[in-house]
Amino acid sequence: MKLEGKVVVAQGGGPTAVINESLVGVVLESRKFPQITKVYGAVNGVRGIINEDFLDLTQETTNNLERVAVTPSSALFSTRDKPDKAYCQEIFKVFKAHDVRYFFYIGGNDSADTVRIVNEEAERSNYEFRAIHIPKTIDNDLMVNDHTPGYGSAAKFVAQSFIGLNLDNRALPGVHIGVVMGRHSGFLTAASSIAQKYPDDGPHLIYVPEKAFRMDHFLTDVKKIYDRHGRCIISVSEGVADENGVPVLEKLGSREKDSHGNVSLSGTGALGDLLVKEVKEKLSIGRVRSDTFGYLQRSFMGCVSDVDQREAREVGEKAAQFAIWQNVDGSITIHRTGYYSVDYKLSSLKEVAAKTKLMPEEFLNKEGNNVTDAFKYYLTPLLGSNMSSASMLRAPRADKILNLRK
Length: 406
Prior knowledge:
With 406 residues, this protein is of the alpha/beta class. It has 13 helices and 11 strands. The protein has a 7-stranded mixed β-sheet with strand order 3-2-1-4-5-10-11, with helices on both faces. A 4-stranded parallel β-sheet has the order 7-8-6-9, sandwiched between helices.
C-alpha cells in the first residue's frame, strides 16, 4: 500500500560539513513521488515539529537546494532536545494534524531513539506512518554502521590540522597538545594519525576514551618522546577518563553541564591547560602549548571530503526510497563491501538507538597511546581525494669552513 501524505524532514544534534547533503537527498527524492503531497522541513529539529514551524521545501528550487547541499552546518537549524515518550506523543499529534505520513530525522543515536519512540506511538494508534533515521555524527559512534556521514570531513580537518601542527613544531620544537572532540569514542582524535608521514612526525602520542588515562603514564610517555626527538606532539580526546570512567575534566572539578546532563567538554580549554601545566611542572619543559579544536572541526568549509559528501547524499536518497517505495521503517546504515565501496541497508532502530560504538581493539596499540596501521587503512578512503601531504627538504648539508668543530 502506498501512503499518501506529507513528508517531514528534520536535523538534530551537532551540525556537520555534509548534513545538508542528506537533507537535499531526502527532499529531491521525495518530490519524485506522486503520493507525496508536500515536503516540509522542520526548523530547529523536533522542537520545530512541536511548534509547527515548517518550511515548505516543495516550493524550494532545485538549484538552491543543490547550493545548500554543499554548504556546511544544518540548514534547518538544530536542537539538543532529547524527547521522551510524552514529547514524542506531542510530535505525533502534530503529524496527525498535518497528515504527515513520512518522517526523516537526520542525526545520531539520540535522534534514532526519537524516531523509534515516534514510530511506536504511531503503531499503537494504528496510524499508517513511516519513520526513517538517517545517520549523522562526526564522532563516528553509531552502531551497525562501518562509519557515519560527517565523520570523513571532520577527520580530514583534524588530520590536516595536525599536519600543520607538526610542521610548526618541527620548526620551533617543544610540546604541543591538540584536544579533539570525542566524549566516549576516539575515532576523530585518532584521525590525527594521518599526519604521520615521516618516521619522526607527530602526533607522537594519541589518547582516546577507550583506554584509561593515567597522568603518570602520560608524563612518562611525553618524556620518552621528548628525549628522543627534542619535541612531542600529542593528540587527546576531550573525553579521556581514568580507570573508573571518570572524565579527567570532571576530576578537575568542572561542574558545567550540557542539555543532556553530561559534564560539558567542548568549548573549554581546561583540559589542554591542565596537561600543559603538568608537563611544564613535572618535566621542566619550557615550551609547552595546547590548542582545543572545539567546534571548528564540525562545519569547517575548507576541507570537506568528497566521499563524505557523496555518501551523505545517498543515505538521504535511500531513506526516501525505503520509506516510500518499500513502505518500511528503520535506520539507514552504511556497510563497507571492499576497498573502497559501500552498500546501504535498513537496520532496526533498536540496534542503533541510544547506543555508542567504540573503537575496536585492533585500531589501538597495546600501550594505549597511539593507533595501529589497521586504523589508518580503515580511515584513509573516507578522507576523499585531494588530501594534503607535507614534504621536507632532502638536500645535503654544505661543508662548514669556520665552525669545523661544531
